[in-house]
Write a structure and sequence with these properties.
It comes from Halorientalis regularis. This is Beta-galactosidase/beta-glucuronidase. Keywords: Glycosidase, Hydrolase. One of its GO terms (molecular function) is hydrolase activity, hydrolyzing O-glycosyl compounds. This protein is α+β, with helices and mostly antiparallel strands. It folds into four domains: 5-136, Galactose-binding domain-like (Jelly Rolls); 141-243, Immunoglobulins (Immunoglobulin-like), CATH 2.60.40; 249-530, TIM Barrel (Alpha-Beta Barrel); 537-613, Immunoglobulin-like. The protein contains nine helices and 36 strands. The strands form nine sheets. Strands 20-21-22-23-24-25-26-28 form an eight-stranded parallel beta barrel, surrounded by four helices. Strands 2-1-3-8-5-6 form a six-stranded antiparallel sheet, with no helix packed on it. The model has no long low-confidence stretch (mean pLDDT 95).
């Protein structure tokens, strides 16, 4: 194993670090002692890890942010600039070995959210974020193994790419096997492929495993999350990865997985933890979008286990040009790293390429004209993003651009009552700008338990344009915005839409959950708005007569009754809605003195409530 770690801040671009003093640090992690450093170096001294018949060792570093140089026993053995792709280096150990890793802040556009104020400095520290290990192997072994699964005409194929390293002349076969992961029963497979290499070489073996009668991975609520272990073996050396089999498509009506319709209710994540995956599932989300960053591999495992789909961004956000050729290389590396996961269904390239709304626009006639003018005159060259998107696989959905109205985005962002207008303008916005069925983000910001004086991730001016009061008023405002937009998108049968964001990375922000995990008022509002079968009001407010609409995202027809109450008024409405449809059986009149309206939808197996509050 690697030994204990020490670290030091360094001058970017200098030679191998050789400081007078190394400070003890915890690796993997983000050592706070280097919070203000543009570059930091980390050192570990470890004994020869081999035992028995092992001849070689491999260092693996995961989460090298953002640009790195690696020295082993005094030699520069590699450079790395894709933190989501593990760095691996094989070597013959000495009795004692010195590993030095220099990590530098982003030097290009591909730092993503970690090169912005959207996350705090403590989360942006250059370092070895996720893992640091050393493996031991015989002289001939599987150095690397990548897989890409797909369904073909009811069966499945798994494309396998194995890298074999050898210390002898090699003329042999690699055995590829497929076995169910877990307790479910399914057919296993075994194939072989020839490999030849000279001593000291690495050989790449590419092979396709045919899978008959596959057991599929299903999204949450539609079926089990079956997965398979793919193993490559040569001699006594093996390497394995876990994958899953499922089909993915999108038609005019929305997302289709394994031939079944999947509603696209999502949330974005800024700095994901496995706990966030649980929170997203509890909020009735069906997918998470990794907003302009790549997560720890453990997050994908959690999504696979939970049956939550993943929309993966390239770490690229904000206005400005970028190197499209380098972007293509990173996109291909992104897919090699995460493409084996059955939960991954979509990619996007460039997030927020234009800042069209640095100041908030109101909802009056002149402000609407200003909004139209800004959208009309906006200019963005999609060519580089589209060329990067071409490097991504055709069996995933790809949205080259996620951005504001006017950016020509494939997945527009929609921010009524934050960037422009009032939340009741959401219908006008959807009609006027022909947003379509995919919305990359929507939402509004709110304070947590503490109101920070200065938080660069939080636009206080936009917030204060709508909120007069403290935390309670702030969170009530956010809850109203999130609920209203989410329900309107569902009523209009939008196929994919994501609330931005699930959890704050800083003391205040767009999250419906605070940084420490405590829910804001908006979390419950989003959970209610995302209920698979839900009764909603199109225009709730005191003194309003508003349509009552029932949405059914389920797979079966539902029938029941909706009881409503507001102040001293109330009533009951019978409803019946086909699977995947919406119905408006009636309208209700809300008293002018009502502080809230509660809808209670009684179904044969459960009761679903939805509450609208007007006193916040």
């Amino acid at each position: 194993m690697l030994g204990e770690w020490t670290g030091t801040s360094v001058e970017p671009g200098a030679g191998k670090p050789d400081p007078d003093v190394w400070t003890p640090v915890e690796i993997p992690g983000r050592p706070q002692v280097f919070a203000d450093a543009d570059a930091a170096a980390y050192r570990s001294v470890f004994d020869d890890p081999r035992s028995g018949d092992e001849d070689r060792a491999v260092i693996e570093l995961q989460g090298l942010f953002a640009h790195a140089r690696i020295w082993l026993n005094g030699d520069l053995v590699g450079e790395h600039d894709a933190y989501f792709r593990p760095f691996r280096h094989s070597f013959e150990p000495q009795d004692q070995n010195e590993l030095i890793v220099e990590c530098r802040s982003p030097e290009d556009r591909f730092g993503g959210v970690h090169d912005t104020d959207l996350v705090p400095e403590r989360d942006r520290i250059p370092g070895i974020w996720w893992d640091a290990t050393v493996e031991t192997h015989p002289g001939t072994f599987i150095y690397e193994l990548d897989v890409h699964p797909r369904l073909v005409d009811g069966n499945a194929e798994i494309d396998v790419r194995a890298v074999v390293e050898t210390d002898t002349d090699l003329d042999d076969r690699v055995t590829f096997s497929l076995r169910p992961e877990g307790e479910f029963q399914s057919r296993g497979m075994m194939d072989r492929a020839a490999v030849e290499a000279d001593v000291g070489e690495r050989a790449v073996v590419e092979h396709t495993i045919d899978v008959r009668d596959p057991s599929l991975w299903w999204p949450r609520g539609l079926g089990p999350q079956h997965r398979y272990a793919v193993r490559a073996k040569i001699g006594d050396a093996t390497r394995s990865v876990v994958t899953g089999l499922r089909s993915m498509d999108r038609d005019a009506d929305g997302l289709v997985v394994n031939g079944e319709r999947v509603p696209g209710r999502g949330v974005t994540l800024l700095s994901a933890t496995p706990g966030d995956i649980d929170r997203a599932a509890e909020a009735n989300a069906t997918f998470v979008r990794m907003h302009a960053h790549a997560p720890d591999p453990a997050i994908y495992e959690a999504c696979n286990e939970a049956g939550l789909l993943v929309w993966q961004d390239l770490p690229l956000t904000g206005p400005g040009e970028f190197d499209a050729d380098h972007g293509q290389d990173l996109a291909a590396a992104l897919d090699r790293t995460y493409g084996r996961h059955p939960s991954l269904f979509a990619y996007s390239v460039h997030d927020d390429p234009l800042n069209l709304f640095p100041d908030q626009l109101g909802s009056g006639t002149l402000d609407r004209l200003r909004l139209r003018w800004r959208v009309w005159r906006a200019s963005y060259d999609r060519g580089p993003a589209e060329s990067v998107a071409a490097a991504l696989p055709e069996d995933r959905l790809v949205f080259p651009v996620v951005g504001a109205l006017g950016s020509g985005a494939d997945a527009p962002t929609l921010y009524p009552s934050w960037d422009y207008g009032d939340v009741d303008d959401v219908g006008w916005l959807l009609d006027t700008f022909e947003v379509g069925g995919v919305v990359g983000e929507f939402g509004a910001g709110a304070y947590g338990a503490v109101m920070p004086d200065d938080d660069p991730a939080f636009d206080r001016a936009k917030h204060d344009a709508h909120v007069d009061g403290g935390t309670d008023a702030s969170q009530a405002y956010q809850a109203r915005v999130v609920k209203r937009v989410a329900e309107e998108l569902r009523r209009r049968d939008a196929s994919l839409f994501a609330a931005h964001t699930l959890r704050d990375a800083t003391p205040a922000g767009m999250g419906v959950v605070e940084r420490d995990g405590d829910p804001k008022t908006g979390y419950e509002a989003l959970r209610e708005a995302y209920e698979p079968v839900q009764a909603t009001l199109a225009a709730p407010g005191p003194g309003e007569t508003t349509p009552l609409t029932v949405i059914n995202d389920g797979r079966e027809r539902v029938s029941g009754t909706v009881e409503w109450s507001a102040a001293d008024a109330g009533g009951e409405v019978a409803v019946s809605v086909d699977a995947g449809e919406t119905e408006t059986p009636d309208s209700i009149s809300i008293p002018a003195d009502a502080a809230s309206v509660t809808l209670s939808l009684s179904l044969p197996e459960r009761v679903v409530e939805n509450t609208y509050r007007f006193d916040g």
